[in-house]
Design brief:
2 copies of one chain form a homodimer.
Chain A lengths: L23 H9 L4 H9 L3 E2 H7 L5 H13 L3 E6 L5 E6 L1 H20 L7
Antiparallel strand pairs in A: 1-3, 2-3
Chain B binds a DNA duplex (20 and 20 nucleotides) through α4.
DNA sequence: CAGGATCCTATCCGATACTG
DNA sequence: CAGTATCGGATAGGATCCTG
């Protein structure tokens, strides 16, 4: 760190210093805001879902990306994974407390975008 | 659309149907949650900034990506751009009302991640 | 100073095939 | 059913050079 001042202009409280450091929050935030992570988290807000239910909820996601996103989210402790060793196997995913905590502002974000977005006549 | 039911399981209110359609909200949300868009928006919450100030705020971003992200955000009406035709030219960026509106939950999100993240002793 | 143009690399991501 | 493995095309992204 060569300079400690940054955003000290008009920012009320310099609560975080996530802009220059490689603090882990940046990685997690990147996962949370990743292309599919967003939708997985939002989908799971409606309740726990199994792999295929998730895949059907988030139309457009491939199995590969879903599995990959889920792995990342589980690693970050945003999502838990429960394997029922039956035949056929049954794997359920759900939000951890952290995941629910993060899902709030995420849904809020989506809400504001969707509500603000469809302005009549902007092709 | 071959089937209209989706997430009708446990979701309280089916407010949006952003999961299967290619509604524009998905595109905007993707921009908002894009790798750098997040940080641009958060950085601008502290006040209007010029190109190089932004670049310095968001350490790690390249000029190309900053310009590209800014263009996308301006297109989505999240950020405005004001050109002062002086020499040297001076271009200032700031949040639109939409941008500020979206910046709220975004900062909230970042806050929760950063606050929750650094658990003492998890190398 | 603010960025466009170009080149090249890293990664994302879908399709397919295969496993427990 | 719930994945993993691999391949190949598409895209994101960095470095550099150049312009108004």
């Amino acid at each position: 760190m060569t300079e400690g001042q940054q955003l000290t202009r008009t920012v009320p409280q310099p609560r975080y210093e996530v802009f220059h450091t490689d603090c882990p929050a940046r990685g997690v935030l990147d996962h949370v805001t990743s292309k599919w992570g967003v939708w997985v988290l939002i989908a799971l807000r409606g309740g726990d879902l199994r792999f295929h239910e998730l895949r059907e909820s988030i139309r457009g996601i491939s199995e590969k990306m879903l599995a990959q996103s889920l792995r990342a989210l589980v690693r970050d402790d945003l999502v838990w994974r429960q394997v029922e060793p039956t035949t056929p196997p049954q794997v359920t995913y759900g939000l951890t407390e952290f995941g629910r905590d993060v899902g709030g502002p995420l849904t809020d974000l989506l809400d504001r975008v969707t509500r603000r977005l469809p302005p009549p006549g902007t092709p």
